[in-house]
Here is the input.
Amino acid sequence: MSINKGPSGLESQVNGNSLPGKKGREGDELRFETKLLHFGGEIDRATGASSVPIYQASTFHHEDIFNPPLHDYSRSGNPTRQALEDYIALLEGGARGFAYASGMAAISSSFMLLSAGDHMIVTEDVYGGTYRLLTSILSRMGIESTFVDMTDLDQVKAALKPNTKAVYMETPSNPTLKITDIGAVTDWAKEHGLLTLLDNTFMTPFYQRPIEFGVDIVIHSATKFLGGHSDVLAGLAVARTQELGDQLKQLQNGLGTVLGVQDSWLLMRGMKTLSTRMAHSEQSAAKLAAWLQGRSDIKQVYYPGLLSHPGREVHEKQSSGYGAVISFDVGSGERAKEVLNHVKLPLVAVSLGAVESILSYPTMMSHAAMGEKVRHERGITDGLLRFSVGLEDVDDLIADLDHAFAASHEVPR
Ligand SMILES: *Cc1c(COP(=O)(O)O)cnc(C)c1O
Here is the structure.
């Protein structure tokens, strides 16, 4: 892929001519970390400015009515948002990218590819908001879904119906970090002509590029690791083919679910440091997970990097790292609440994937809407906490948790 042009010709669309110093790289395939900084939108070629300008405009002047400007209205296209869209398409290795007002806007807009009467197979431990969208909104519109344990391909196959149109994956899943074999599911889906979608929020393209395994649409809550600073709400989608990209474009414009230009700029600002942030957080996460696993007062630790993780082998086939999210069971709901009240460093909040560590309590936060029975069936026990490891010194994080564990009363196993 040519970096000067980007997947949809950013350079020609935004800046016209290129800077002399930036020539000569056309056609070279750069490594991922380099692409993060040299994605085609890193320099405003009109002025040489070191970042994409924020085109704070809703509409564009038609100088010559017979020869309209490239962008004519910002819902349909804006150069700042376009730079971000080309950026994520390049990173995921897809034909075309799209930026939305939130992760849920990216997901709901993508689901609009389906029609009334269609059926979808969905991973059972899908993000809570996606579960709500499917079961309380799309169900009203005649789009039905079956939830299956996607770590078991037989369950996926058994859910096939004559009207099945799509398969929706999330790996590692939230919060128990179960692993779906992306290639196995997409191979089977293709045999049946099904569209495949994957929420890649936890891994980001730094560790996992699902399009390389045949996925048709990759989705992100860019609010998390891509933005990385808990200061912007955004969603992204990347289409594997130009044709699918054209369909997503029509939906994004028709639904009006676009991301604003300030947030588009802020997101690109955050994404430039993705590799460094992910690598640092992952290193700390590995140390923290091992420390947690070694404690007798922690019932269970979920992290794909642990040798004991049942999905580790499959995960290593499709990802180059294990990420920065760890879940662990402190034994009871009572103790979980005490730990939450005693920790001093992490943000106690919904969300993940930021420079600061974030500790959340799925039972009362992200998965509160799920009934207790379903929650327990999916391993989301009352003692389960989810830790998104940030950039603090890991020894400080461990000391903080150690103190919180000691202060909270241990429940006999
Ligand atoms: C947060 C999240 C979403 C939803 O994204 P928003 O930006 O909050 O709308 C979707 N999927 C996953 C895995 C998430 O963590």
Remarks:
- Confidence is low (pLDDT under 50) at residues 1-25.
- The radius of gyration is 22 Å.
- The longest strand covers residues 164-170.
- The domain at 274-407 is CATH 3.90.1150.10 (Aspartate Aminotransferase, domain 1).
